[in-house]
Amino acid sequence: AAAAGAMLFVVTHEIIPESHRQGHAAEATLGLVFGFCLMMVLDTALG
Predict the structure, then answer these.
(1) Taking the complete model, does pTM exceed 0.85, yes or no?
(2) In terms of residue numbers, what domain contains 39?
(3) pLDDT < 50: residue spans in the chain
(4) Which of 24, 28, 30, 42 has its CA 20 to 30 A from that of 15?
């Protein structure tokens, strides 16, 4: 759980703001949403 929390912290505080500064806000947001949806589908499918 600690590793997952650390990864979420890095993504939300480092990677997303950097991609928004570079002008890739839409791609970053879509990637985050797609990744979250994929994670939820896999979690449900694999139990």
Answers:
(1) no
(2) 2-46
(3) none
(4) 42
